[in-house]
């Protein structure tokens, strides 16, 4: 009986443990931190051996196969020891994909992948049996046990792609590449780019690659590293033969002479970046033969993703907007770009080597006050201190929202768009977004 060791007892770890057991592995789950009680209950109920708050090396280094959580970097000593012993260390996406014949749609990118994945799922679910998994919702492995859908839309992070060997999505989508998570890639942007492009490395000429043709990083990489799959680019500026582009406020998507058109003004989501997300998702739907009418209707009624430019409440004619999912500068760039009123901006958290320069034009033009929310706000104070009349440091979400309430006037926006990771004051970006919404509702 082959031994499967799982490092990390979170959503992907528990899903893999259940699937591994069902496929006849001897399974052991090990987490250096605390495994949540609901996950422990699942492991106990399914008689799967586990430990938390430690890694017992003797029980790990005898594995035939190791699935590690995307949160564990490759450079930790335990992972290095496994690799030195020649033990295969893979991600949940790699493990689960071995056990399905479903059509896989893999979506990655620095920004927009959650919205694009959610929108793609929304477009497909009317006509197809489709699951939504990966970095979002229930784990891919667990869904395969529970439902085994005929199609899966997978939102995939670079960390998950680092752990693939044979994973081959039939349709790969790359929304964009901007510097992010560089602390995990030796502060080398090229390493991060290579990681994102792993999504196409096992594709053949029978597969498809949908990507942003306006992104210079993607274009440069494709010029030096040719790919095998059929290319379906999307662009806001170029005319595209096979793929998606814009002509006179209309999105035009063409695949093998079969065309679908959609007026931009009918899209439910605002902002240039969301036109791109809609193009990518619609190209997938068009490729999978979803009816044109279904695609149009679904684009018109899609409600968006929680914590991504989410309108929370309007209080005294001030709109409060939750964009907690903006964990890097580029995401916040899109948020500030789409603001159409004077904005009180709540920003800050765990800085991943951010360069705030690209935000300066929007801050000068649209931001009337900045509220810093982090353990260490020095870099923000230095970057923006001279640009706005009001810049205030806070340590708690409730305090940040109260200050925003005082500073904002009728007709303004209050925008939480942190441009940073959340781990200094919050459990994760969802926790940060929920605390913001609770604080707004308690005003």
Automatic annotation (TrEMBL):
Transmembrane segments: none annotated. It is found in: Cytoplasm. ATP binds at residues 109-115. It catalyses: UDP-N-acetyl-alpha-D-muramoyl-L-alanine + D-glutamate + ATP = UDP-N-acetyl-alpha-D-muramoyl-L-alanyl-D-glutamate + ADP + phosphate + H(+). Residues 307-420 form the Mur ligase C-terminal domain. Its EC number is 6.3.2.9. Residues 107-285 form the Mur ligase central domain. Keywords: ATP-binding, Cell cycle, Cell division, Cell shape, Cell wall biogenesis/degradation, Cytoplasm, Ligase, Nucleotide-binding, Peptidoglycan synthesis. Pathway: Cell wall biogenesis; peptidoglycan biosynthesis. Cell wall formation. Catalyzes the addition of glutamate to the nucleotide precursor UDP-N-acetylmuramoyl-L-alanine (UMA). Belongs to the MurCDEF family. This is UDP-N-acetylmuramoylalanine--D-glutamate ligase. The lineage of its organism: Bacteria, Pseudomonadati, Bacteroidota, Flavobacteriia, Flavobacteriales.
């Amino acid at each position: 009986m082959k031994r499967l060791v799982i490092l990390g007892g979170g959503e992907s770890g528990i899903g893999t443990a259940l699937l591994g057991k069902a496929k006849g592995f001897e399974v052991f789950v090990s987490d250096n931190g605390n495994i949540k009680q609901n996950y422990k209950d699942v492991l106990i109920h399914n008689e799967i051996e586990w430990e938390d708050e430690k890694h017992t090396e003797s029980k790990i280094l005898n594995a035939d196969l190791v699935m590690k959580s995307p949160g564990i970097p490759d450079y930790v000593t335990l992972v290095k020891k496994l690799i030195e012993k020649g033990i295969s260390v893979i991600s949940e996406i790699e493990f689960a994909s071995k056990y399905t014949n479903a059509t896989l749609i893999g979506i990655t990118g620095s920004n927009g992948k959650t919205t694009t994945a959610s929108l793609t799922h929304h477009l497909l679910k009317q006509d197809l049996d489709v699951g939504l998994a990966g970095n979002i919702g229930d784990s891919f492995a667990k869904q395969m046990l529970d439902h085994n859908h005929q199609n899966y839309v997978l939102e995939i992070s670079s960390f998950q792609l680092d752990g693939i060997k044979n994973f081959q999505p039939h349709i790969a989508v790359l929304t964009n590449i901007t510097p992010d998570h560089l602390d995990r890639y030796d502060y080398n942007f090229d390493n991060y780019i290579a990681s994102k492009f792993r999504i196409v490395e096992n594709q053949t000429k029978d597969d498809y690659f949908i990507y942003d043709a306006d992104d210079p990083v993607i274009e440069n990489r494709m010029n030096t590293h040719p790919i095998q799959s059929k290319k379906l680019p999307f662009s806001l500026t170029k005319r595209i033969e096979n793929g998606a582009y814009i002509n006179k406020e209309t999105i035009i998507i063409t695949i093998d002479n079969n065309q679908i058109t959609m007026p931009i003004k009918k899209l439910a989501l605002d902002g240039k970046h969301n036109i791109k997300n809609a193009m990518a998702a619609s190209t997938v739907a068009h490729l999978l033969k979803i009816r044109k009418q279904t695609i149009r209707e679904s684009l018109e009624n899609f409600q968006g993703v929680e914590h991504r430019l989410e309108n929370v409440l309007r209080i005294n004619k001030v709109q409060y907007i939750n964009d907690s999912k903006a964990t890097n500068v580029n995401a916040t760039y899109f948020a500030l770009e789409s603001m159409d009123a004077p904005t009180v901006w709540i920003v800050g958290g765990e800085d991943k080597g951010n360069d705030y320069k690209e935000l300066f034009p929007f801050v000068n033009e649209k931001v009337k006050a900045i509220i810093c929310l982090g353990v260490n706000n020095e870099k923000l104070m230095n970057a923006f201190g001279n640009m706005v009349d009001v810049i205030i440091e806070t340590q708690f979400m409730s305090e940040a929202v109260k200050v925003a309430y005082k500073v904002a006037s009728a007709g303004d926006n209050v925008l939480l768009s942190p441009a940073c990771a959340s781990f200094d004051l919050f459990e994760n970006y969802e926790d940060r977004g929920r605390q913001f919404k609770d604080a707004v509702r308690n005003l």
